[in-house]
Structure formats: structure tokens, C-alpha cells
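Project standup — Tuesday

K.O.: blocked on the structure for the chain from last sprint. Re-posting the sequence here as requested.
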Amino acid sequence: YVTHDQEEALSMADRLIVMNGGHIEQEGEPVSIYYEPATPFVADFIGSSNIVHGRLIDETVGPGLVAVRLDNDGVIACDAKDLGSDRLAVAIKSVHLKLTHIAPPEAVNAWEVRVTRRSFSGDFVEYRLDWKGQPLLCRGLPDELVEEGETIVCSVAPEHAVLMQSSGTLP
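H.V.: unblocked you, prediction finished:
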């Protein structure tokens, strides 16, 4: 069965194949593809992802974690993977970013961001954020609204910052 409807594919399929330009980017179970995308294309195609680029750096950030210095000079901690390259991408689903007024004490990844746009949609709210010139998209519940122009703390758990090759189709 072939579909371009992501919700339909995620809810009905036992296995998915994500193709890009006639090449298989990734195949596997829907949950696995959603939470562990293999390429930036898959991360952005299945769900809404922020894709940021950077290089591995030699910095201790915690057990089983690696640090990536992003193009905006920010640093993000991710679960360690050996990808054989120092030029990498990190995918973060928009629903995994959390906004708070104070950095959570246990947060490894927490940065000050500025809210550039807020779109209220009833069941959820979408924020456009600026993190040192890096645009980010955050979607969450509308339980505590943040105003446009406000500076706030944005955080993500390292397990939700998925490390991958910066680009390219899998063989």
C-alpha cells in the first residue's frame, strides 16, 4: 500500500519505507522511524523536526553522550553514536522541545531563546523560536502561553536529540 499521508502510514503500517528521489532512505517499524530517523530527510518527512548542523567536539557532557557544536556556536548533547564523520546533523522533533521560564536543574540541553511568533490552535500552540540565529519550531499544549518577543528557556532531553549524518541517501 502506498500513501503520502503520514498519519495514515504511521497508524496503519507494520513497516514503513521512506523513499527520496527513488532511493530508500529508511525502512522499519513506524515508531522506530519516528523516534530514530536515519537521515535529515526522514526526520523532516516523518513528523515535524528541527534539523541543526554541527561538528563533534571533545567535551564531556555526561555518560553515554557526545557533544555537537552547532553552526550557531551552541552546543547540544546527544546519545553517542559512531557515524564515522565529524560533520553531523541533529534532529529534534518540535514536540520534544520544552519551554520554561527557568532551566530545569537536570537539563543537559537548555538554552535561552526568543519567541519570534506564536500561533494558537486550540489543542496546541506553535512557537517560532530564535536560538542564536538558529530558527526552531516548538509545538506543545497551550497550558502556559508565552508571548511573542519574550526570552525563555528551551530544553530537550539528549535522547530526543537524534544524531545522524549531515546529509545523503543510505546505500
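K.O.: great, moving the ticket to review. The chain is about 10% helix and 45% strand. The two ends are 23 Å apart (CA to CA).
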